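Quick one before lunch.
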Amino acid sequence: MKRLAVLTSGGDSPGMNAAIRAVTRAAIYRNLDVIGVRRGYEGLLDGDVIPLTKSSVGGIIHRGGTILRTARSERFKRPEGVNEGLSRLRSLDVDGLVVIGGDGSFRGAQELHLRGFPVVGIPGTIDNDLWGTDATIGFDTAVNTALDAVVKLRDTASSHDRLFVVEVMGRHSGWIALSVGVASGAEHVVIPEVSFELGRLCDKLHYAKKRGKTHSLIVLAEGVMPAQELASLLSDTAGYDARITVLGHIQRGGGPSAADAILASRLGAFAVESLCDGEKGIMVGCVNGAMCTVPLEKTWAERKPLPPELLELVETLSI
Ligand code: F6P
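Model of the 6-O-phosphono-beta-D-fructofuranose complex:
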């Protein structure tokens, strides 16, 4: 192996820069050449690449976003796009590719793998919805960003005796909502993994009010329904006047937490080590504190379950 390429793809996540730095420096340490592909698979198809050096990845470990930029590529979803990307990698003399992203990005990586190209994935998404790693890069930071907002919302909710619905990210996954719910002491969490029952939520709100609770926070994962819809349901069914806050893309911004910067550094170095050892078609992950690998396909085919203990805690600690 002489030359590696690295790209970031899909939604950005805090810690992607720390992973780019780790991949670059670990590769240079092994006397490999490194190029960065800009704008994910889109940039690959356009041949938008830059050399990465020890100094060009200096001063980025703490920065949010991704210096390589990112994209969700429609072109790369088609077989012709993948074939074109493969030719591009070969014409650039690249021997191995590191893809930092989430499940969509790994589906693209798998296509390259199936065509015989050595590729290793690094889990980078705030959603934490990939099988094979306890945490994805950016999840911890996103939870802390959302938590900061929810804690502030509680101040105004309690001052005004109000009900708040806070919508956090997670189209198919309740990891952020559940974690923020537990960490903020939210009264209710509405997530895609648990079927939503309006009657039950109204009963809980009613019971809380009866025993003297003057304000409540509901943390809602965006995948269940928009916050406005839930507020309307609560108003139409039980006359609740809920205020809503949609946290949105703020959850993807900001520099990484210590946990994310460390995770990204470890995974970046381990991805290079794995490629050099001849591993391919895998994602590197961290399970119970130890580095590990899992076939790319499994990362999206298996569903990472939410910890039942956390689900129970939201119920038992908020009453
Ligand atoms: O990257 C994951 C994620 O932030 C999801 O939580 C969210 O649903 C989605 O991306 C939003 O994507 P986009 O930025 O393309 O609107």
